[in-house]
């Protein structure tokens, strides 16, 4: 990697991993209360029962097999890609003592009966949502991705990839994407012609952490390579010979030459809208703005008198299909929330039962002593 140390200001050795004052404060709080000497490290890849970590000055990722203080019952508390952790040396191993508080996460909703939410990436500043210009675009998918990103607290940026393939349709594609991306910047790019790469590269500020989202073949890897000027990621053609993606040499925390970091997470196939409805609300903030002017507070924007949403549709300000998609995502979000609540309730009941039984057993033992 090229180093850009032309300025005289000494940079913190952790800067290249995305170290920030927020993370520093979180680390200090943990380190000060520990009896051990702890070092901060960043997780480049999560593994079952451990994590690959990066420490400054140590080239290769180390494997940290034990997670001491992360809750064992909740997989969401186990280290994931992008996490900052406090580690200590133990013989030849690094032990993860604590997972530091996260900001900006990407969470896969646990929708199956017993499934937990799974944190795919942590401490993410920006998510670049890639949608290929020659395939649609699929605005419904885009809205799902946007909801997911907003709910996790990261900032979405949209990239219309393979721009040159859209030909004359490009302006139409851009307009459509922009019409559903309220609040997110849209970049029109091509890894092949170089269109829009400079503008995008300017947004990849040093020390910021990015995740790329998009369907397989959307051009994510090609874009990272083109924007960084290096073949950092395997693209479609190369992978053909390798069979399958996450091979042994696969690095999940990539440092771009400009200083930004890219977390390469396994493909997000299913996009379940998070139960946290704030993501959907934020994605559809334009529709919500109309809804605020409806006559009735509990307006369902169907056929009520004085419905400002329907009025906006009649006036051509709002696409009726967008309203339909909003309703659908809100329902899904509500459903996922209630399932999550149900799971939490069941877990709590289980815990209470176990506690109750333990108390009864203890009581029985005690009484046994008296007799
Ligand atoms: N014409 C054209 N093709 C592109 C462009 N960017 C990527 N491609 C092609 O699209 C295909 C998929 O690109 P990748 O970069 O591997 O896509 P990806 O999103 O990383 O795919 P996954 O790793 O499977 O998620 C490859 O054959 C690329 O050559 C572009 O700007 N223009
Ligand atoms: Zn209404």
UniProtKB/TrEMBL annotation:
<feature type="binding site">
    <location>
        <position position="299"/>
    </location>
    <ligand>
        <name>Zn(2+)</name>
    </ligand>
</feature>
<keyword id="KW-0963">Cytoplasm</keyword>
<dbReference type="InterPro" id="IPR010914">
    <property type="entry name" value="RsgA_GTPase_dom"/>
</dbReference>
<feature type="binding site">
    <location>
        <position position="294"/>
    </location>
    <ligand>
        <name>Zn(2+)</name>
    </ligand>
</feature>
<keyword id="KW-0690">Ribosome biogenesis</keyword>
<feature type="compositionally biased region" description="Basic and acidic residues">
    <location>
        <begin position="337"/>
        <end position="362"/>
    </location>
</feature>
<dbReference type="GO" id="GO:0005737">
    <property type="term" value="C:cytoplasm"/>
</dbReference>
<dbReference type="InterPro" id="IPR027417">
    <property type="entry name" value="P-loop_NTPase"/>
</dbReference>
<dbReference type="GO" id="GO:0003924">
    <property type="term" value="F:GTPase activity"/>
</dbReference>
<protein>
    <recommendedName>
        <fullName>Small ribosomal subunit biogenesis GTPase RsgA</fullName>
        <ecNumber>3.6.1.-</ecNumber>
    </recommendedName>
</protein>
<dbReference type="InterPro" id="IPR004881">
    <property type="entry name" value="Ribosome_biogen_GTPase_RsgA"/>
</dbReference>
<feature type="region of interest" description="Disordered">
    <location>
        <begin position="337"/>
        <end position="371"/>
    </location>
</feature>
<dbReference type="GO" id="GO:0019843">
    <property type="term" value="F:rRNA binding"/>
</dbReference>
<comment type="function">
    <text>One of several proteins that assist in the late maturation steps of the functional core of the 30S ribosomal subunit. Helps release RbfA from mature subunits. May play a role in the assembly of ribosomal proteins into the subunit. Circularly permuted GTPase that catalyzes slow GTP hydrolysis, GTPase activity is stimulated by the 30S ribosomal subunit.</text>
</comment>
<keyword id="KW-0378">Hydrolase</keyword>
<feature type="binding site">
    <location>
        <begin position="214"/>
        <end position="222"/>
    </location>
    <ligand>
        <name>GTP</name>
    </ligand>
</feature>
<keyword id="KW-0862">Zinc</keyword>
<feature type="domain" description="EngC GTPase">
    <location>
        <begin position="122"/>
        <end position="269"/>
    </location>
</feature>
<dbReference type="GO" id="GO:0042274">
    <property type="term" value="P:ribosomal small subunit biogenesis"/>
</dbReference>
<keyword id="KW-0479">Metal-binding</keyword>
<keyword id="KW-0547">Nucleotide-binding</keyword>
<keyword id="KW-0342">GTP-binding</keyword>
<keyword id="KW-0699">rRNA-binding</keyword>
<comment type="subunit">
    <text>Monomer. Associates with 30S ribosomal subunit, binds 16S rRNA.</text>
</comment>
<keyword id="KW-0694">RNA-binding</keyword>
<dbReference type="GO" id="GO:0005525">
    <property type="term" value="F:GTP binding"/>
</dbReference>
<comment type="similarity">
    <text>Belongs to the TRAFAC class YlqF/YawG GTPase family. RsgA subfamily.</text>
</comment>
<dbReference type="Pfam" id="PF03193">
    <property type="entry name" value="RsgA_GTPase"/>
</dbReference>
<feature type="binding site">
    <location>
        <position position="307"/>
    </location>
    <ligand>
        <name>Zn(2+)</name>
    </ligand>
</feature>
<dbReference type="GO" id="GO:0046872">
    <property type="term" value="F:metal ion binding"/>
</dbReference>
<feature type="binding site">
    <location>
        <position position="301"/>
    </location>
    <ligand>
        <name>Zn(2+)</name>
    </ligand>
</feature>
